[in-house]
C-alpha cells in the first residue's frame, strides 16, 4: 500500500510539474510572439525612415537645382547691368568704384552666340561654305 501511495504522489507531482511546464511554455510562446510582432514594427519604422530620408534628398536636390538656376539668372542680370554701365562710356575703374567691386570683376559680358542676327543688326550673318566646298571637291575629283 505504501507503494500505491508513493506512486499516486508521484503521479500527482508529475501532473503538477507537467502543468507548470505547460504554463511556462505558453508564457514563453506568448513573449516570443510579442517580441516577433515588436520586431516587425521596428523594421517597418526603419524602412519608413529610409523612405523619408530618400524623399528629403530628392527635395534637397530639386531645391539646389532651382537655387542654382536663380543664382545664374541673377549673375547674368548683374553682368548685363555692368555691361550697360560700360556702354555709357564710363571707365571700368569708375564702374568698379560705384559698385564697390575690384576692377578685375568689372568685365563686359560676353555676347551670346545663340543670339540671332536679327537681334544684332551690326553683324553680318555667318555663311556656311562647307556645302559649297564639298561640291567643289566632288567636281575636282570627277
Care to describe what's here?
- This protein is 75% helix and 0% strand.
- By secondary structure, the chain is mainly alpha-helical.
Detail the poorly predicted runs.
115-142
| Rg (CA only) | 44 Å
Q: Which structural class do the helices and strands define? A: mainly alpha
Nearest-integer average pLDDT: 82
**Cα shape:** rod-shaped
Q: Got a strand count?
A: 0
Strand composition percent: under 5%
Number of separate helices: 3
| Oligomer category | single chain
Specify the biggest β-sheet.
Answer: none
Helical percentage: over 70%
**Beginning-to-end CA distance, first to last residue:** 133 Å
Order of helices and strands: HHH
Key descriptive features of the protein:
single chain; 142 residues; mainly alpha; 75% helix
Topology, element by element:
Layout: H1 2-87, H2 92-99, H3 130-141
Task: Provide a concise account of the structure shown.
The protein contains 3 helices and no strands. The protein has 142 residues and is mostly helical.
